[in-house]
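ARCHIVE CARD
CATEGORY: sequence design from structure
SOURCE FIELD: tokenized fold
FIELD CONTENT:
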């Protein structure tokens, strides 16, 4: 088992396949003309499989593929096939634009749940947020996932003054569709122009929903990052990921591998451990994995506190979201 100095068992690995994406959401990608990593800098298929097996041998039983957009990688299908052979729950976070090309493979690979990023239900605002005209295909692919029986979660980053007035629209979506909406507080990363006044907190989200709908809390599961709720009579549910206003670090079980093979023990950790270079040299990377977890801070990467309103984003040492992996 991989256990940190706070006695937290780590059995969940998030693997970023690429820092490339076919959308340009400002809170994730700091610049439109972004210098993506070269193919040689990325973990190759065999290397991803090899590292995944090392983590699985240490007790990892869940792997999530992320990006960038993981499905833009040309060998994404081969990676999914390989990882599907491991004794893990395999899941995926995607922007949804290419899911129609992967639906059959995901079913064959026993992927049962997908997280799809969608921050607005308005096509014009989607284009404003992503700088791409892909709203219709994302909507169609969300419906495709629902129709094919996938547990379909929709991730909405709530931005004050941008899409916070759409919260009721997302809740209404859960009425007749088994879609599971996750409202996410806006988090600071390099270059994403984060300020505290753009954060729409969990309390504000719940108060907004309560203006129109009754709310029933759902049973929390161990290691949940999302606080779950439902509206009575609705087929779907909703949840809030309250990283900024009410963190959930106490029983964190997550580790991250960036697309270039660096291990991050926390989304907000400033330090990384290079696993890819020693792996390519034939060296044992297991001590490095334990070294990374031993250095894990108690909360929020040790970089800030729950008082997010006093946070100066420039003081945080971290990558942009797209280079970490969602």
């Amino acid at each position: 088992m991989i256990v940190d100095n706070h006695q937290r068992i780590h059995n969940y690995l998030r693997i970023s396949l690429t820092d490339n994406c076919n959308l340009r959401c400002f809170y994730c990608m700091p610049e439109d003309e972004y210098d993506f990593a070269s193919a040689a800098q990325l973990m190759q298929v065999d290397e991803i499989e090899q590292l995944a097996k090392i983590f699985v041998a240490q007790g990892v039983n869940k792997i999530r593929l992320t990006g960038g957009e993981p499905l833009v990688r040309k060998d994404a299908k081969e990676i999914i096939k390989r990882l599907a052979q491991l004794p893990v729950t395999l899941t995926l976070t995607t922007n949804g634009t290419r899911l129609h090309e992967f639906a059959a493979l995901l079913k064959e690979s026993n992927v049962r749940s997908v997280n799809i990023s969608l921050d607005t239900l308005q096509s014009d605002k989607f284009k404003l947020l992503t700088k791409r005209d892909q709203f219709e295909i994302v909507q169609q692919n969300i419906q495709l996932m629902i129709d094919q029986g996938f547990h379909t979660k929709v991730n909405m980053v709530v931005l004050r003054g941008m899409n916070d007035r759409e919260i009721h629209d997302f809740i209404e979506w859960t009425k007749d569709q088994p879609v599971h909406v996750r409202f996410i507080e806006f988090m600071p990363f390099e270059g994403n122009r984060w300020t505290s006044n753009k954060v729409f907190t969990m309390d504000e989200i719940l108060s907004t929903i309560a203006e129109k709908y009754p709310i029933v809390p759902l049973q929390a599961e161990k290691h949940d990052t999302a606080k779950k709720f439902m509206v009575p009579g609705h087929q779907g549910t909703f949840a809030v990921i309250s990283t900024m206003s009410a963190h959930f670090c106490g029983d964190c079980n997550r580790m991250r591998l960036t697309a270039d093979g660096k291990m991050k023990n926390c989304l907000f950790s400033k330090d990384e451990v290079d696993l890819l270079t020693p792996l390519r040299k034939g060296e044992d990377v297991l001590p490095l994995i334990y070294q990374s977890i031993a250095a894990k801070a108690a909360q929020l990467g040790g970089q800030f506190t729950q008082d997010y309103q006093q946070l100066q984003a420039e003081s945080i040492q971290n990558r942009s979201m797209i280079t970490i992996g969602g």
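CARD ANNOTATION: The chain is about 25% helix and 15% strand. The longest strand covers residues 151-158.
SHELF: design records, drawer C
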